[in-house]
Design brief:
This protein is of the alpha+beta class and 153 residues long. Helix content is 17%, strand content 37%. About 16% of the residues have low confidence.
Length: 153
């Protein structure tokens, strides 16, 4: 399969699955609470694990991450490409992404988490927040990707 088709398919899968992202297992905190929980929004969520594998530091200095802004904009870096779109929290329990797009830089690093991250996003059916961790879950409640809150952007 040609590189152009592969890139296009990856962008389509990412957009479609993020639109279909599913249920949240617990209400999403709006602000930091007394238990040390961090807010969902305006937090730098660093990718720490995807597809059961720990994510190593980036050789380029740019780590994979996700930021959900107060204005409904989701943006981040996949380990190779920047991505951006919109998100909505519905009834305090569902997190839905839409209009997702990414740059199209070709990265050859075998350790790059981009493909696994986009696949995890495509298969996400729920989200779990606990302490300083955000987990994307599959339909069985198993973790697909884990992010850690490292700082406010």
């Amino acid at each position: 399969m040609g590189k152009g088709k592969s890139d296009c398919r990856l962008l389509i899968v990412l957009g479609w699955v993020l639109v279909m992202a599913g249920c949240v297992s617990q209400p999403l905190p709006v602000g930091a609470g007394p238990d040390g929980a961090v807010p969902l929004t305006n937090t730098y969520w660093k990718l720490t694990e995807v597809a059961g594998n720990e994510v190593a530091g980036s050789k380029t200095g740019n780590e994979a991450h996700l930021i959900l802004r107060d204005d409904g904009v989701a943006n981040g870096f996949s380990g190779c490409n920047a991505f951006r779109g919109e998100y909505e929290v519905i009834e305090g329990r569902n997190l839905v992404f839409s209009s997702m797009a990414s740059t199209r830089r070709a990265c050859q690093d075998a350790d790059n988490p981009e493909r696994a991250l986009f696949e995890a996003m495509a298969n996400t059916a729920g989200v779990q927040m606990e302490d300083r961790r955000l987990r994307l879950l599959d339909t069985d409640g198993q973790p697909l990707a884990t992010f850690e809150a490292t700082r406010q952007p």
